Amino acid sequence: MQFKQINIEEHDSLSNHTTGPGHQAPPRRKSRTEGEPLDPQALAAKRAKAEKIGRTAAVFIMPLLIVGMMIWGYLGAMHHQEARDMPVAIAATSTAQAEDFAAALEQANAEAVEISIVDSQREARDEVYDRDASAAVFLDGKNATFYTAGGAGVSAASSIQAVITPVMLEQDLKISAEDVAPLPANDPSGMGAMFLATAMVTAGYMPWSMAFSNAPELLRRRRALPLLAGWSLLMSALGALIAGPILGVLDGAQSVQVMGVLALGVFAVGAGQLLLTRLFGAMAVIPGMFLFMVLGQPASNLGMSIHVLPEFYTFLHQFLPMPALGEALRSVMYFNGDGAAIHLLILTIGAVAALLLTQVIDNARTAKGKSTIPTEINVAGLHGGPRPKSNAWRYITLGAIPLGMVGVMLTFMLGAMQSPTVRDMPVAVVGSTIEQAEQTAAGLEGDMEGMFDFTVLDDPEEAKSLISQQDLAGAFVLPTAENPQAVLYTAQASGNSNVQVLSTVFGQVAGAQQLPLDHQELAPLPEGDNVGMTAMYLGMGWIMAGFMVIIVGDTAAPHARRLKNLLPLLAGYSVFMSAVLYLIAGPFTGAVHGHFWALLGTGALAIFSVALFSTIFSRLMGMLAMLPILAVVMFLGVPASNASLSIYMVPQAFGWLHEILPMPAATESIRSILYFDSVGVGSHLITLALWGLISLAVVMVLDQIKPVRGHMHPVPEEVLAELRGQTPADKAALAAESANEIDDEASHLADDELEKDALGV
C-alpha cells in the first residue's frame, strides 16, 4: 500500500505510520460529519422532502381544524333545541290564582321554565322589557295578558309561547297578547342585530391573522393601536351605511349610536386577536375563530335563544364579545338604548385587559432580547404575485379582504333575510272535484295575492306524493261528506319555516269558516334534528372544506398547485373531509343516523367541485380570491339554500340561484338523502358535478395561458432585514460572520480529507 507524503510539522501525529503487526494506529480527530452524509445535495434533498411532506400535511390539518371546529360547534349546539329554564314572571289579582297557574305551568313542563311570582302587572311587564324574563303572564279572573318582547329575540318569544299557550288554553283563559318591544317594520325578524354583530366580529379578528403572514410590522403595538382604532371607525361606518341608507334596516336617529357600538365591538375583538397573535403566533386564527365565532355565535342569543341551547352557552353569554356586542345592538335598535350599558362595559373591560396583557408579553420578550413580532414573512403578496414595492398597495390589499367580506356579507345575507315575505309558495288545494278546488283556490288567491302558487287537485294521494317529492310545500284538503274536517298536509323535513307559515295561514282559513283542521305531518323531523339545521350546517361544512383547501394550499403547499399534483390531492382530501364531517354530524353530535355511503359520496363530490371552482380565482387573484369565492358559494349560497330560511321567503333572485349554486345543491341533497329516501337527489348531484367539470375546464385553459408557479415568491432580503431591525452595518457583519463559518467548515473538511489520505482511505 502506498502512502502519500505528509507535512510533519502540521500533522506530526500521523508521521512514520506503519501497518505492521502489533502496531497501533495513533488517535485521530473525529470528523464532525462522521456518521452523517457528507453530500450537501443529498442533505438538501432530504430536508426539502421533509418540508414538502409537512406542507402537504398542513393542507389537510388546517382545514380540518377550522372547518371541523366550526361545524362541530354550530351543529353540536343547535341541532336539537328544547326550551330550558326560560324565566317567566307571573302576576295576578290574587296570590292564589298566580300560585295555581305557576303550579300548572310547572307541572306541564318544569324543565322548560323558571317561574317567579311578582307583585303587579307593571312589574311583570317591566321584567320582560328589561329582559330579565322571557315572558310574563298577568291573570285577572278568566282573562290573561301574555307579555313577550320581539326585540329580545323571535326564537325566545316563539319558544316560550309554545310552552305557556297550551296551559292557558287548558284553563279556558281569554288570552290577550302584548309585545312590549316589537321589532320594527324594516327589521321584522331581528336579523339586523345578528348580521351586524357577526360582520363586526369578523372585521375584528381577521385582519390581524392576515397581517401576521404578510405585514407583521403592523403588529407592533405602537402601530397596531392607532390602526385598530381607525379600522374600527371605518368598519362601523361601513356597517351603518349598508344597514342604514342602503338596506333601510336602521333609521337615521339610530345610525350614530349603532356606529359607536359597532366601533367598540370591532376594537374589542381586534384587541383580543392581537393578544392571541402574541400567544399563538401563526396559529392565532384558530383560537380566535373558536373564541369569537364558534363559541360566540351560539352564545350570542341572536339567531337562537340561549334558553333552547345547552346550558354551557348561558354561561358564555355573560362575557364573550359577540354576545355583548349583539345585546348592545339590540338595546340600541329595539329598546331605545335601555340596557346597553352593561354590555358596552363588558366590551370595554375586555379590550383594556387584552391590551394590557399584550403589553406585559411584549415587555417580557423585549427584556429577553426577543422581537415582539414575527421576523419572517410567509406570504409575499396577497394578490398571488411578487411582493409589492409600494407599502400602500400592500396595505390596501390587506384591508380589502376583510372589508370586502363584511360589505358583501351584509349586503347579500342581510339584504336577503331582513324582511322575510312569503311569495309563490307551491300549495295544492284538493277538492272532491277539480271545479270545487279551482273555486276555492280562486277565493284564496284573492285574499292572499302573491303568497301562494296554487295547484288544484282532486286526489289527496297525489298531493301527498308531490309533497314527498318536494314539488309542493303543502296541501289543503277541503272537507267532504265522508270527512267533514279540513286536512293540512305538510313536510317539516323540507323546511320548518314553510310549515310554520302554512299552519298559521290555513289555521286561520279553517277558523274563519268554522272548520276543524287536521294537520298531518308527512315528513316529521327526527328528535336529533328537531329544527332542521343539520342540512344547512353539514352542507356549509362541505362548502367551507372545498374553498379552504385551496386558500390554505396556495400558501402552505405551492408545489401542489399544478393540476397533475392537485387533482389526486383533492380527491383524497375530499373523501377525508367528507368522512370527518359525517363523523361530526353522526356519532359525535347525534344529528345524523345512518346514510353513511350516500353522504360520504355526495360530500366528497361537493368538496371536490367547490375546490376546483375556488382554484379558478386562486390562479387569478391569490388570497384575494377569498372575496369572489365566498360571495358566490356562501354569501349568495346560504340565502339561496332553502335551509336557514324558506326559498319562498327571500327575494325572487335567490329562487333562481337556488337552482344553480353549489350550496343549495348540497343542502337539498342532504335533505333528500336523510328524509326523502334520496328522491330528487340526482338533479342536485348533476349540479355539483357540472360545477366541478366546468371549473376544471376553466382551470386547464388558465394554466395554458399562464403557467402555474410551483413555489412561493421570495421575500427580498432587505425587507426581512428591516423587519428584524438590522442596519446595513448589521447586514455586513452578519455576512462576514457567515463567510467565516463557511471558511471554518471548509477547513475542517480539508483536515478530514488529509487524515483520510494519510491512512490511505
Automatic annotation (TrEMBL):
<feature type="transmembrane region" description="Helical">
    <location>
        <begin position="192"/>
        <end position="212"/>
    </location>
</feature>
<feature type="transmembrane region" description="Helical">
    <location>
        <begin position="395"/>
        <end position="417"/>
    </location>
</feature>
<feature type="transmembrane region" description="Helical">
    <location>
        <begin position="56"/>
        <end position="75"/>
    </location>
</feature>
<feature type="transmembrane region" description="Helical">
    <location>
        <begin position="340"/>
        <end position="361"/>
    </location>
</feature>
<feature type="transmembrane region" description="Helical">
    <location>
        <begin position="288"/>
        <end position="309"/>
    </location>
</feature>
<feature type="transmembrane region" description="Helical">
    <location>
        <begin position="224"/>
        <end position="250"/>
    </location>
</feature>
<feature type="transmembrane region" description="Helical">
    <location>
        <begin position="256"/>
        <end position="276"/>
    </location>
</feature>
<protein>
    <recommendedName>
        <fullName>ABC transporter permease</fullName>
    </recommendedName>
</protein>
<keyword id="KW-1133">Transmembrane helix</keyword>
<feature type="transmembrane region" description="Helical">
    <location>
        <begin position="565"/>
        <end position="584"/>
    </location>
</feature>
<feature type="transmembrane region" description="Helical">
    <location>
        <begin position="596"/>
        <end position="617"/>
    </location>
</feature>
<feature type="transmembrane region" description="Helical">
    <location>
        <begin position="681"/>
        <end position="702"/>
    </location>
</feature>
<feature type="transmembrane region" description="Helical">
    <location>
        <begin position="534"/>
        <end position="553"/>
    </location>
</feature>
<keyword id="KW-0472">Membrane</keyword>
<feature type="transmembrane region" description="Helical">
    <location>
        <begin position="629"/>
        <end position="650"/>
    </location>
</feature>
<keyword id="KW-0812">Transmembrane</keyword>
<feature type="region of interest" description="Disordered">
    <location>
        <begin position="1"/>
        <end position="39"/>
    </location>
</feature>
